[in-house]
Prior knowledge:
Number of helices of chain B: 11
Distance between the termini of chain B: 82 Å
Order of helices and strands of chain B: HEHEHEHEEHEHEHEHEEHHHEEEEE
Number of domains of chain B: 2
Mean pLDDT of chain A: 87
Radius of gyration of chain B: 23 Å
CATH architecture of the largest domain in chain B: 3-Layer(aba) Sandwich
Oligomer: heterodimer
Structural class of chain A: mainly alpha
Amino acid sequence: MNFLSNIISGISLGSVYAIIALGYTMVYGIAKMLNFAHGDVIMVGGYVCFFAMFSFGLHPVIAVLLAIIACTLLGITIERIAYKPLRSAPALAVLITAIGVSYFLQNAAQLLWTSSPKVFKSVVPKGYINLFDGQLSIAYVTLVTIATCIAVMVALTLFVNTTKMGKAMRACSEDKIAAQLMGINVNNTISLTFAIGSALAAVAGVLMCSSYPLLMPTTGSLPGIKAFTAAVFGGIGSIPGALIGGIFLGIIEILVGAYISTELATPIVFLILIVVLLVKPNGLLGKKINEKV
Amino acid sequence: MKKFFVILMVVVMSLALVACGGEKQTDEPSTVIKIGGTGPLTGGAAIYGNAAANGAKIAVDEINALGGLQFELRYEDDAHDAEKAANAYNQLKDWGAQITLGSVTSAPAQATSAMNYADGLFAITPSASSTAVTEGKNNVFQMCFTDPGQGTKSAEYISEKGLATKVAVIYKNDDVYSTGIYETFVAEAANRNMEVVSVTTFTTETQNDFSVQIADAKNNGADLVFLPMYYDAASLILAQAAAVGYEPTFFGVDGMDGILAMPGFDTSLAEGVILLTSFSADAEDAKSFVDKYVAAHGETPNQFAAGAYDAVYALYQACTAAGVTPDMTAQQINDLMIAQFTTMSFDGLTGTDITWDATGAVSKAPRGMVIENGAYVGMD
């Protein structure tokens, strides 16, 4: 029973990684760019939701919608100002810019909202589903996070595979120049990808803060990096891979902590990641890409 | 020939510069004693730096209003970074600081205290509690307990009050503050027949999920959980322990102070939490300071603010007793201060009959506080 309850803790931690990883992997899959500012957009989403509920007393649903709108606008703005002018620049330049944006957001958040931590009030009612006479309990927020992950995953997959815009995204992902020659507006397609990625970040921010209710300007950065790891683990660019990678990472982290040592949890997680990448260099569900020479 | 002129010009110009510097000092004799300090005014630890700077400012304003000795205070930002702290320290020196309040947090304080020692510039840090800050430096003093001191005092307190026999410890093993307290706590617990049944750790990266640590403490039957950490992590532990229905006594140290002031924090989670700290915003003698602080900054001062406030007053007491005047050099003041601090006794907000030993460590009695109905209540 102890083991099962550890698994459940792992799933609840993993579901948070997974929902962040979805945003990372979506942007990477299409724009072929690692948006390191993703974790900080998550933090902004958390703050918007916090102030909407705490200072203005709005209903959680409205607060979440506000956070989504704010993050989408923020994502579009960042893309316009920081990434769009670098469309033809080497990938490394964009990566560095993304890191710069990440620092900018963290420090701007600190100026605006100070560095003192705030306690986020969960948007999901507090409570548990008890199984086996209360020996196992699963928090509602975990269930909501997992359900959201699956819903987002299905919706994204359908969107990318069946809609016209999705087709354009896949085309951009495969070959930007060829896509442009075929009459696809590559710039707008990538902007749309960022908008969707940022909206996902808002959802991730709200759910992450509901599970782990501490909100600081640096709240998004470390989970962002863990989630990035999860995305690589599952196969970066693969939407179902992000979900699986996230859940796996969470479970491994908790089990190592519980049965081996809390001190070694992080090193062992990364050791497993290295082993997985040695065996399957593209991650668990990653597509094998043949380099064209 | 050209080269000769260049050298001549350099010599003349540097002489001119030196002369300017000299003139400035003789023309305007300083009428105030310049006190400098570095602290994280921005960055993740900004809450501590700003609290200390604000607390020190209140003390300086009060002292200047008395009309006697006049102080001028300047805080430079070190962003909780040792390298930036060294730059900040140099800026203070260029400004002409005669005494310093050291640095607010331990890592920068390690860097600046070495410079204080090398330059013979006196320092009393309000809150940098690592022993590395004072070790081997006869002119660096602390207003706060050292980390090992807190661990020992906590174990003593728990055992003397009979709070628990089975104790769990959760500490942050990538943080010198947390590990320092943990080590001495466990050592003292062993002397006092307290059984430490569970020891678990976390790091900055894993500071989200505490289910493993809480389950370990719970399964090993700990009736007290010792939390030597800052309140941000502690608030998550309290929430997650409550969620699984685990209700031991939680025992914190000075880093726990501030938990009630977190916006949005459900204070019922902290009900019954005990913390050993040197400052209580509820104490009668702190009322005037607390009121001034709240009026100026809109929040209740924490122990960092109180520590800085006390540090300035301790300097005032020492300066008055030693007859320090603003025209003295930093080195002269340094010698007088060392003599005063190792012999004087000081009463402040963070304790009474406070004394310092030659290593710079402070000696004062900690106050046990328990959180009841969302406020600190003294236990003694």
